[in-house]
Structure formats: structure tokens, C-alpha cells
Amino acid sequence: MEENNITLHIQNADGSLTSLEAPVDMGLSLMEYLKACEYDILATCGGMALCATCCVDVLEGEDKLNEMTDDEYAMLDTLPDVLPNSRLACQLQLNPAMDGLVVKLHHTD
């Protein structure tokens, strides 16, 4: 693994994990990276914490994430099925501390 990359693990709908190598030196959010990897994320607000369509559930590594902002908390609070470990992927800037993070897309279907 390159020094400027971290490994992220995405839990698929069937419970299996997909491991991805993500760059931390490009200023990408987790949402932008997952969209680039063609995951089904709408991100209709473009990463402004206004729509919650990029919600993910953090399965491992929640302690590695930055603290939730008031805007993120307010948006998550509008979801009917939010979990204590739910976060907006647009608000999570990829950084070296996130190496090994395990998330799954929070679908409301």
C-alpha cells in the first residue's frame, strides 16, 4: 500500500466486504470516493450536508472519525431510521486515521 493511501472496507448488501485503496492526498470526502467507485450514492446536495442521501453506517472505526458537526447532526436527525453509528459520507474527509474503516451504505428502502 502506498503511503498516501488507506484501506477502506465496504460491507455489501449480502454481508461480504469489499476492500478499497483510497487516496488521502486528494482532499476527497468518503462520499466523493464512494461515488467514484460507482457505489449507489445520490449525493443530491453535492456534499453540503443538506440531503442525507450519502448516509453510511460505520461498522468499525467510528472512533477514528472527526466529531459530528451541528449541520450533520441536524440532517441525520431527519432520517426515520438513523442509527447511533450513522454518518454523512460527505462530511468525512479521507485521512490517514481512517485506515481500516468499515462502513455500509445506509439505504432507506
Automatic annotation (TrEMBL):
It comes from Pedobacter metabolipauper. This is 2Fe-2S ferredoxin. GO terms for biological process: P450-containing electron transport chain. Belongs to the adrenodoxin/putidaredoxin family. Gene3D superfamilies: 3.10.20.30. Its cofactor is [2Fe-2S] cluster. SUPFAM superfamilies: 2Fe-2S ferredoxin-like. GO terms for molecular function: 2 iron, 2 sulfur cluster binding; electron transfer activity; metal ion binding. Residues 4-109 form the 2Fe-2S ferredoxin-type domain. It comes from the Bacteria. InterPro entries: 2Fe-2S_ferredoxin-like_sf, 2Fe-2S_ferredoxin-type, Adrenodoxin-like, Beta-grasp_dom_sf. Keywords: 2Fe-2S, Iron, Iron-sulfur, Metal-binding.
